[in-house]
Amino acid sequence: MNIRVLAVTVNPDRPTTESFIGLHRSGIDITVICNIQFPHYQKLIDAGIPTLDINLTKNVTFKTVLALRKEMTIGEYDIAHTYNNSGLTSALIASFGLPIKIVAYRGIVGNVNYFDPISWMRFLNPRIDRIICVCDAIRDYFLNMKPRFLRMPRNRPVTIYKGHKLDWYQESPKDLAEFGVPDNSFVVGCVANSRPRKGIEYLVEAIALLPKDINVCLLLVGHMKGYKLDKAINNSLEKHRIYLPGFCDNAPTISASCDVFCLPSVKREGLPRAVIEAMAYGVPAIVTDSGGSPELVQNGKSGIVIPIRNAKAIADSIEKLYRDPEFKKSLGMNAKERIDVHFDNDETVKQTINVYRDLLSV
């Protein structure tokens, strides 16, 4: 049976784009709805994948729903695989009465509630056949929601890790002198857009707890603004060691130049791409036991896992890696191998096809 899939997205990242290409090469008849201006669009065209430019804004519109329904009807698709909230809601409305399976994507833990009407228009909608979760923590969240009598069927949420390829991370590491970072510094990096759940303020606090003989610098890449974070930086006795270059293109090459990567999330973490990118370059990561981070990093083997909201634990981990270069090197090598073996994009494609076949009983 030739499986026809309509992928509904806006600006897919590289792993998702490569998954589309992998599905296409594996014989899946896939068409991708996306913004034709997104950075990896040409990869889809070069691979011979049909695309459609349907504007999936944050708000569901009649025009979008009508366009989706028309495409679903004409294309006779077996599956609509959605990758964002507006796309999911639009597809659910557009598919009413049509014999098409709905697959949703979920990348973070939480923010779904049985007493929230919006949740019923998205991930709690019984019309959804499968929810592909990027980590077990997300799947477990769905399966343990309360009240128990409303819980979704156990086969609806499925874990498929979003895979990468080491080949994607071969560019030379960035020269951090561009950001004013002194030579011979022990650099702790973090790439994120600061939100309260990211816990970046605990990382800032940790820098001030380190012994004075450690020549450490903290490099915070991305949108790093927020009341708690601003307060932590302004009150830090070591703020002269903190560098804030803002948003940067090709952030993985910046992570590659760091000695350690740290993501101190306090809740709702999925499978953090920035951590994967650092690990792919052989940079050991310090993460918290939030969401999918412990599934990504093996404590003491491919990185360090610490409790949430614990600046002292962050500082102790940084000091350990600073004083034991061989341990740091070992963690980095294992981190790179872990991404190569356990978070490979080919496996993502294979497992996605298995979900499709299971849904269609083929």
From TrEMBL:
InterPro entries: Glyco_trans_1
Any single Pfam family the record assigns to this protein: Glycos_transf_1
An example molecular function term from Gene Ontology annotations: glycosyltransferase activity
Residues in Glycosyl transferase family domain copies: 175-338
UniProt cross-references to Gene3D superfamilies, sorted A to Z: Glycogen Phosphorylase B (3.40.50.2000)
PANTHER family xrefs: GLYCOSYLTRANSFERASE
Protein name, per record: Glycosyl transferase family 1 domain-containing protein
